[in-house]
Design goal:
By secondary structure, this protein is mainly α. It contains six helices and two strands, in the order ααββαααα. A hairpin with a 5-residue loop joins β1 and β2.
Amino acid sequence: MHEPHIDSLLPAEMAEKAEGIGVRKANMQFFTMLMLSILAGAFIAFGCIFSTTVSAGTISVSSVDGAVIYSTGLPYGVTRLLAGFVFCLGLILVVIGGAELFTGNNLIVMAWASKKVTTSSCCAIG
């Protein structure tokens, strides 16, 4: 029987992997990058809409002195917690779908720092 294998990397290996990803991202064709960026925006928007839908619908009726007379739905904190959880759906879709977010493209700086890509290749369009 095999022992479970956890894919963990040491810091030097993580830096090497980030450099490789940076080189791949820097060499990506413009049209491919544009389409994957639009897809990432759609995924994040989907997560945002889902989050808004989950947090909507709570109604509170208050008296003149501010005391809550009638309330439907979950407490405020629980509603916000659930909204945060379901927003993660957009981020999960970005990772699984291979879409390109700006934050992920900041890894290119690792490849730039190790001189595996040039400044012009990082900023080139086309």
